[in-house]
Fold RNase H-like HicB family nuclease.
Amino acid sequence: MAKYLFPAIFDPGTDGSDGYTVTFPDLPGCITEGSNMAEAMHMAKDALEGFLYGMEEDNETIPSPSTPHMISVPSGGFIAVVEASTNFIRDEMEKKAVKKTLTIPKWLNDAAESEGINFSHLLQFAIKERLGIRKNI
């Protein structure tokens, strides 16, 4: 639905590794990590997009991002602004297949199978026809 910019705290911790824990001060519970800088940046974007997509789906209010220089950072850590778009995730979720179980009489099943009918394709076609949907999704 939208593009977002949120500040993230990259905390190297105290174990001496190259990894980072990434948190978003404005989004409690949005946490990820990476074993190095590149992975942490990638994971930050991925986590932010998924978190915001969930908030959009739940009709939650997306908070305004904090001003980066107003955020306190742990020793050795830093702030980076992460850009995220929920459009890609939304598109992928809409294309995701959903399994449905249905019941039809045996005689109808036998007749359809003998004609080589693809039940999934036929059901999709019939639903789109009923709803007046003309595009392939």
